[in-house]
């Protein structure tokens, strides 16, 4: 079954108290209209973030989607089949925002047009690389703003969450309550200024249910598996991502922890997804060829 979910159905936090906007069965497909991270309040360069901007209305995620038979202890797998971008996006600077935020004295907006599969940045043309910034489920307890990443997913800002990949998320509450938003037309690893090319989009996904227990999100592509971890301390996120990878290698290849650890050290790549959200997100790339 194919459904369509309009961008008017958004949440600003992931929570089991959110009322589902759509009920689906495992195996169903959904066309999801996503809003940009600023709720489409910044569309001209004369508009920008300031002290009067409602920061409670950032990173809206379309949903939530209730997946029947999704229960705590299982995993939902989201296959990303298509991302269609709007015709323009924005990049934003704001004092204190991003890695060098202490060097930004005033807010600034740059409008980026998208045409011929390229982003137009001043006189430069850069190839588009659409990806989903926010993809998550309701946490076990409480509410988590959509701008925050974690074990539930959320604002992972991971480049590999794109067309052709599958995102695996642990289920913490009945129905999972999946929500998606914050699409970027283009973003570099780290998202160092705090934004990519923020834009509206149409995302097509297929949701599958798995009898699999995972601790944090996993992203699978044609040639690799990425183990993600988010934490306030970068060192902790790194340690978790490496541990997930080593444990997976040990189990799949039926080798000792020691051998799996050494194999990971010589064949896997530790990478940064983003360092600008309340929690930092890292990933460990495991090439499928070694399995």
TrEMBL record:
<dbReference type="Pfam" id="PF03069">
    <property type="entry name" value="FmdA_AmdA"/>
</dbReference>
<dbReference type="GO" id="GO:0016811">
    <property type="term" value="F:hydrolase activity, acting on carbon-nitrogen (but not peptide) bonds, in linear amides"/>
</dbReference>
<dbReference type="InterPro" id="IPR004304">
    <property type="entry name" value="FmdA_AmdA"/>
</dbReference>
<protein>
    <recommendedName>
        <fullName>Acetamidase</fullName>
    </recommendedName>
</protein>
